[in-house]
Amino acid sequence: MDLTKVSSRKPLRALKFLFDTRVPLNVYLSYIKTYIRKKEILRGAPDISNYEKDKSFGTFSNDWFKPNIPYWHKAFLDAGFYERDINSLEIGSWEGMSTLYILSTLPRAMHTSVDTWAGADEHKGQDVLNLIEKNFDRNTEKYKNRLKKYKGTSFNFFNQDLDYKNFDLIYIDGSHHTDDVIIDAIKGFELLKIGGLMIFDDYFWVYYKNAMDNPAGAVNAFLNLKLGCYEILDVYGQLIIRKLTDGRRPSVTF
């Protein structure tokens, strides 16, 4: 399987990839800012002993999540998530590693996980597909009283009668094809509270031959569409934004 990731640690290659996926100028500037401040951000990494203890009792086939923790901690700290009640939503949960991190480090979080647990294009033929849902259930069992599990597509989830602007944190890590990512971004942003955080996973991830078919193609289209409605906090392997406004214009009648 030809599955690669453009390294965010190689600025020239990363910047070319951003150009190929029609990135808005504000992402260029934020990427450079994050790259310069990387050592400072990593030095601010939190104590994750409780999370590591919970994870040690779980079953995980891979750990793609750990490098994100210093960036998440910085964003959570600035948003005051450690001291207040929050609602969080995750599109794409796999075996529950990011779910476990949110629930173990944000003790007042109520979390919703959305996944088909059937894998996506890049997972076809993998034996782990027979185990991921069972692993998710077992890995998150400790926190089931603060966890809602929705088994189905994000498209069907968003088509429910959901509370408008209900979530403080939304993590987008479901299907990685641009058609699905753009729906998750737009519909998720509608449900995100003003001041809430949205995190896009695998921003520099490459699987599809056409650059615009990868997550960055959709994320950049969304960012261009919503210019002025958000601020970018960090750009690395992921991209974190804070919602400033809905950006909705009043309807005009004739």
Explain what you see.
It is a single chain. The chain is α/β, with parallel strands linked by helices and 254 residues long. The protein is built from 10 helices and 9 strands. It has a 7-stranded mixed β-sheet, sandwiched between helices. α9 (178-191) crosses α10 (215-225).
- CATH fold descriptor: Rossmann fold
Structural class determined from secondary elements: alpha/beta
CATH architecture: 3-Layer(aba) Sandwich
Total domain units:
1
Overall number of strands = 9
Count of runs of 4 or more consecutive helical residues: 10
Give the helices and strands, then pairings:
Elements: E1 4-5, H1 11-20, H2 25-36, H3 38-43, H4 49-56, H5 69-79, E2 86-91, H6 97-105, E3 109-115, H7 132-139, E4 147-151, H8 154-158, E5 167-172, H9 178-191, E6 192-200, E7 205-206, H10 215-225, E8 230-235, E9 239-243
Parallel strand pairs: 2-3, 2-5, 3-4, 5-6
Antiparallel strand pairs: 1-7, 6-9, 8-9
Keywords:
alpha/beta, Rossmann fold, seven-stranded mixed sheet, two-stranded antiparallel ribbon, 9 strands
Task: Explain briefly what this protein structure is.
The protein has helices at 11-20, 25-36, 38-43, 49-56, 69-79, 97-105, 132-139, 154-158, 178-191, 215-225; strands spanning 4-5, 86-91, 109-115, 147-151, 167-172, 192-200, 205-206, 230-235, 239-243. It has 254 residues and is an alpha/beta fold.
